[in-house]
Design goal:
The complex is a heterodimer of chains A (about 325) and B (about 200). The longest helix of chain A has 18 residues. In chain A, strands 8-11-7-12-9-13-10 form a seven-stranded mixed beta sheet, sandwiched between helices. Chain A has a six-stranded mixed beta sheet with strand order 1-2-3-6-4-5, covered by helices on one side. Chain A is globular. With about 325 residues, chain A is an alpha+beta fold. The mean pLDDT of chain A is about 95. In chain A, about 50% of the residues are buried. Chain B has about 200 residues and is α/β, with parallel strands linked by helices. In chain B, β3 and β4 form a beta hairpin. In chain B, α1 packs parallel to α2. About 10% of the residues of chain B have low confidence. Classes of the chains: A alpha+beta (about 325), B alpha/beta (about 200). Chains A and B meet through α4 of A and α1 and α2 of B.
Chain lengths: ~325, ~200
């Protein structure tokens, strides 16, 4: 769902209160955090979606990497996961389901976690994802609400997966589609681990609301204003070309319409603006880190093999989530 | 040069852009009117048109958008100074195919040669800009043609496949046209006179 539709519905539900809830639904964070005891907090998240690539094994990997990402975005370690599956038993052979589940399982294993169950329903169209549980020290949680003026913003994966998913359906830009598939299947584990030694003021992962949607959540949650440097954005190969010829998903337009606090410099081309709003699947982590640590964080990400990482902007002042893209 | 209508109402993203792209590739010159029923499709088709220098005038009627694109035949002209697309097209070939077999002599041999010619054409770069089919040549672009697959592949790569409408009528094949579009003598003459053309 688009951010506007979802916020409208959720605002009509009464908020549940519990003193052990450290992060709940109020701040639009990536996962919920529940304090079990003074040294351990439980991090829980769930995500599932329809296939975005044709290869079922690859789809399974991407869905799992996407579900696990919310745990990493909170600075936590995943420990267990449950499968959520919708599958058309009559239309597709069981091998397809097996490949999806194998992809998910391999990704969860790579993350050092374990699948301990799941639930499957019959449906007209396949859907897959996981509910993932992680743990962290309650004082070490990264929320999206702690960015401070002066912080640098670091993004760890290239943008454009939504646009390239459109390109895949159009049977165009094969090179970019292949790069997007690899990027979506990659875990955010390395980036999260590389960042553990730093003073991460805020973190979120970039998913359906697009770069600027998630930048907005971080900026509004932190009561700051940010500037994004469009020339520094890591962008997947051919994504800009695909955007330029109109392979822009509806979600990008919904994100653009919802965000009222974004101002672009005239010099930012239209296709780059589209990339800023493009809904991402299994996107990268976005860190807000003190200026004097940004260089070292970039170096640590480089050593960890997070090659797409880039400093993409800065928190400029206190504010209400204003975003200026130059 | 009649207007080509591309009705994309009810189609999900990115299908309207794909259909527009196909129509633009098949048309040598003229106007295309794309009809869409939502803002996203409208914006994306306009982006496509802008990226390809096709202009894009949008008119809204009863919640539907009518987007007019103009493909200018001068883009195929060797004297046109514009854009790199023109540069690429300058050296691109147009084939005027006047028979359903290749060369004079044995019909049987000619049929084999035509098939071999089309298969080989797929391997050659750059691809031709357009292929014009007249007289019995139109038998190659209809159902049951021995080279339909090759022509469909060429069309998929952006080669305009144009068959003489009068000829299709004469052979009563209009309903069987299976690849590309029917065209008229005006477009054929215009294409030939503005392009490097080989007649077969």
């Amino acid at each position: 769902m688009g951010p506007g539709d979802l916020a409208g519905i959720l605002s009509r539900l009464p908020v549940m209160h519990n003193p052990n809830v450290l992060v709940g639904i109020a701040t639009s964070d990536d996962a919920g955090v529940y304090k079990l005891n003074p040294t351990t907090a439980l991090i829980q998240t769930v995500d599932f979606f329809t296939p975005i690539v044709d290869d079922p094994y690859m789809f399974g990997q991407i869905a799992a990497a996407n579900s696990l990402s919310d745990i990493y975005a909170m600075g936590a370690m995943p420990i267990t996961a449950l499968n959520l599956v919708a599958f058309p038993n009559c239309k597709l052979p069981g091998e397809v389901l097996l490949a999806i589940l194998q992809g998910g399982q391999d990704k969860v294993a790579e993350a050092g976690a374990v699948i301990i169950g799941g639930h499957t329903i019959d449906d007209t169209e396949p859907k897959y994802g996981l509910s993932v549980t992680g743990i962290a020290h309650p004082d070490k949680i990264w929320t999206n609400a702690g960015a401070q003026p002066g912080d640098y913003l670091v993004l760890t994966k290239a943008l454009g997966t939504g646009i390239l998913a459109s390109a895949a359906r159009a049977d165009m830009f094969a090179q970019g589609v292949a790069a997007a598939t690899v990027s979506m299947a990659a875990l955010n584990a390395k980036a999260a681990k590389a960042a553990t030694d730093f003073n991460i003021h805020a973190c979120t992962d970039i998913t359906g609301f697009g770069l600027l949607g998630h930048v907005y959540e971080m900026a509004a949650g932190s009561s700051v204003a940010v500037t994004i440097d469009s020339a520094s954005l890591p962008i997947l190969p051919e994504a800009a070309d695909a955007a330029a010829i109109g392979l822009v998903p509806g979600g990008a337009y919904a994100n653009r319409n919802y965000l009222q606090t974004v101002e672009f410099a005239d010099s930012v081309p239209e296709n780059i603006r589209d990339i800023c709003f493009d809904p991402q699947t299994s996107g990268g982590l976005l860190f807000a880190v003190p200026e004097n640590e940004a260089g070292k964080l970039m170096a640590a990400l480089g050593v960890a093999g997070v090659t797409a990482a880039s400093v993409i902007g800065q928190v400029t002042a206190t504010g209400k989530g204003e975003i200026y893209v130059r | 040069m009649s207007d080509r209508i591309v009705d994309c109402r009810g189609l999900a993203c990115p299908q309207p852009v794909i259909n527009t792209k196909k129509a633009v590739e098949q048309l040598v010159s003229g106007r295309i009117i794309v009809i869409v029923d939502n803002e996203v499709a409208k914006s994306n088709v306009v982006k496509f048109a802008t990226a390809n220098s096709l202009g894009a005038a949008v008119e809204e009627k009863d919640g539907h958008y009518y987007i007019t694109l103009v493909k200018d035949v001068s883009q195929l002209s060797p004297v046109s100074p514009r854009t790199e697309i023109t540069g690429e097209c300058e050296s691109r070939q147009v084939y005027l195919i006047t028979r359903n077999t290749l060369g004079q002599g044995s019909e049987e041999l000619g049929a084999v040669l035509m098939k071999s010619f089309m298969a080989t054409l797929l391997e050659v770069n750059p691809q031709p800009a357009a292929m014009l089919f007249i007289n019995s040549g139109v038998k190659l672009t209809v159902q049951g043609s021995p080279v339909l697959e090759q022509l469909a592949t060429l069309a998929g790569r952006g080669v305009s496949i144009l068959s003489c409408g009068t000829c299709l009528d004469y052979y009563q094949l209009k309903a069987d046209l299976a690849v590309g579009e029917a065209t008229n003598m005006y477009t054929i003459v215009e294409t030939i006179s503005t392009s490097k053309t080989v007649s077969l």
